[in-house]
Amino acid sequence: MEQKDLREWEARCIQEEPPACKAGCPLGVDARGFVLAVKDGNPVGARAILEKNMPLAGIVARMCEAPCEQYCLRAICGGSIAIGALECLCVEAVPPRGKPLRLPPRPKKVAVIGAGPSSLIVAFDLAKKGYPVSLFHLQDGPGSWLRNIPETILPGEVLAEELERLARLGVLYRRVEALDESPWAEGDFDAFYIGQDDRLAEDLLVGLGLPDVVTFSLGKSGWFTGGLSAEDDEYRFITDVSQGREAAVSIDRFLQGASLTAARVALRHGKTDLYTPLENIQFVERLVPRAANYTEDEAKREAARCLDCQCLECVKSCVYLKEFGAYPKTYARRVYNNSAIVKGSHSANKFINSCSLCGQCEIICPNDFSMADLCLDARRTMVKEDRMPGSAHWFALEEMRSARTEAAVVRHAHGRQSSSSLFFPGCQLAGIRPDQTLRLYEYLQELEPATGLWLDCCGAPGHWAGEEKEFAVIIRDLEQIWLDMGEPLLLVACSTCLKMFREFLPRITLASVWTVLAERPPKSAKPGVTKVLSDPCTSRHDQKTQAAVRTLLEAIGQPLSPLKNSGELTECCGFGGLMESANPDLAKKVTKARVEQTDREMLTYCAMCRDQLARTGKPVSHVLDLLFADTSHGATEPSVTLSARRINRRQLKNTVLESYAVGQSIPAAQWEGLALHFEDSVSAMLEERRILEDDIRKVLYQTKQEGSSLVHGEDGSRIASAKLGQVTFWVQYKEDNDLFTIQRCWSHRMTVVGGTV
Fold first, then answer.
1. Where are the domains of the chain?
2. For residue 194, what are the CA distances in angstroms to 49, 191, 227?
3. I want to staple 622 with a disulfide (CB 3.0 to 4.6 A). Which of 181, 235, 610, 632 is the partner?
4. Given this chain, do its domains 18-98+299-310 and 110-255 carry the same CATH topology?
């Protein structure tokens, strides 16, 4: 990923956009954070948030007209949050944090002419940056008209305290005896500010030109102004304060010789791209205090009305995005940083490989941010640059390769030389429900006798793993097989296969099996109790198939109850994108979150979804269980093991060859005949460690042929090992009359350089 690509990705995520209240504050105060601190009973933290962006908070918090409130999204559901009143309470209850931090002294001096609010802000901001500031005021003292504010609003001691803070920052107060004096002309100053919210500014602008509306610079170099609010301005005080801050930014840039406008952050006036849904917000009226000001308890209750405006819509719906503790914008940075590492730990590898690539986030995001595209692109780059961890997807890829070789077969219908259509069940249905695969094929032949059968894998694991070269070979091979079969209509049962074919093999004419069945449901169908239908995530954009399944279920009389996040917003079962291969613990959380959305029995039309969801103990049926009573499986039936899937595919191929190819079959390998018995804990160990019974049989057969096993214990147990492909497998076992009792098994990918493994 190039840096420009990173910027494009970051721009799509709006989570870091400010909430409307902050965008509506001319000073950029984090009103949301402040209100939430009040809600949590943390007044000290609340004051700290104010002082981060609010200069002279003791004055400004009391005097601010709170323009932020007009942008508060709570306004339509009970009235905006009383941010201004909460700020007043906070500064009254909590003292200032102490002397503000000041940068080291700078040589250039600034004259601030006038002592009204805008001038005080200019002096505060520039003094903090280290500039020597002289503030010129009339006889009544610094503060100008603020000295006339009623004590109930701005107590005199508060004003005095804040002016003293300015003095401690190094601001020098200089008294001007008369309006016609100009002592600043004698001070060798490098920049000047005229505060027009003070009488001292009268007649000083003659010959200086009009101020720039953005930078507040005057026609004469080094001269700036502010405090220009109109008398009828509803937000007069905070407008003057804001202008003082903007002028201070310009003065700082001028003194450093920088552009006054380049990359300058403009005031937002409440404008933000942050998305906050309001559809389900409960109406709660604004709390009116019993006395003049809120009590601490009343303040907490009023603050609790805050909506805590965030986007995070994708994170709220995705277990994966929650798991890694951030949101897409920061994830894009992690992916970029991960790709930029030449030597060292690629800490984002697991994050990149854990995405299910389901695409739900793109549907939810107002800006169509797709973690699937981001992670898939990163996986391709990692594979291309030989930085993909060897263990990330190896098992899934081996499953794919097995399904494409030892379990693959394509045949016309028995006794026919051509096919008008070809049934493609997909490798998962074939491995998990081989009996139902054949039963469905038989029914399709009843509907159209010239229907052939194609057992194969669509190559999705190669695509998901970022193995572009291998996937390209698979796609070419699949297309050639279809061409060799006479370009028949492909009837596809698996939603993932449909998606792959549509995206990468557009030449192939396709139809979902479920659309065919919806038109002519089998008479053997038997509906069950009311269920909820979980759409596979790979059917997200396939509204036609989703509708066909529902039409089919309605036709057979199967009652359905709604399930959260179905259809276009459906969720992954934990298998998609090879999540289960790269991060099995996360996959379990994803599966668990899905089944917890309902108390009812679940139903799906994806074999992998059925088995993934059923692993939680949830009753889950496949649609085929309802359609064909003679091959129905119970909703509580355990999931098929990894080993059984591999064996099922191989046996299904043999059944097809024997039934549809005049008695052909593939002789079993010698190792397949070894009899195994597993101790109780071993079966779970095999699943967890992705070790197949086939692997164990191959290791034991090879060891037996070579006589290379080692005695392990007094009970007669032995240990055998063999390297199969890139993985070395170890088996601890006991043998008794050609029965191998398996006690433990493990594997690794290490290669001992200069030695043997």
1. 18-98+299-310, 110-255, 313-384, 394-655, 672-748
2. 30, 10, 8
3. 610
4. no
Task: Give me the residues paired with residue 721 across strands.
Answer: 730
The residue whose two tokens read 């079959």 is 665
Q: Using CA atoms, how far apart are residues 337 and 347, in angstroms rounded to an integer? A: 9
Torsion of CA 558, 561, 564, 568, to 10 degrees: 40
CA distance 252 to 255: 5
CATH of 110-255, one of 3.40.640.10, 3.50.50.60, 1.20.1250.20, 3.40.190.10: 3.50.50.60
Q: Are 278 and 65 in contact (CB under 8 A)?
A: no
- What CATH topology corresponds to 18-98+299-310? Fumarate Reductase Iron-sulfur Protein; Chain B, domain 2 (1.10.1060)
Distance CA 553, CA 550 (A): 5
Regarding the domain delimited by 672-748, which CATH topology (the fold level of the hierarchy) does it fall under? YaeB-like fold (3.30.2310)
Length reported for the chain: 757
Give per-10-residue mean pLDDT for the chain (757 aa): 88 95 96 97 96 96 96 95 96 88 94 96 97 94 93 95 94 90 87 94 84 94 94 92 97 97 93 91 93 93 96 94 95 88 69 96 94 96 88 92 95 91 97 97 96 97 96 97 97 97 97 97 93 97 97 96 93 95 95 96 97 96 96 96 95 89 76 90 89 94 86 83 90 91 88 54
Extract the tokens encoding 386. 């030989």
Could you give the CA distance from residue 483 to residue 224 in angstroms, rounded to a whole number? 78
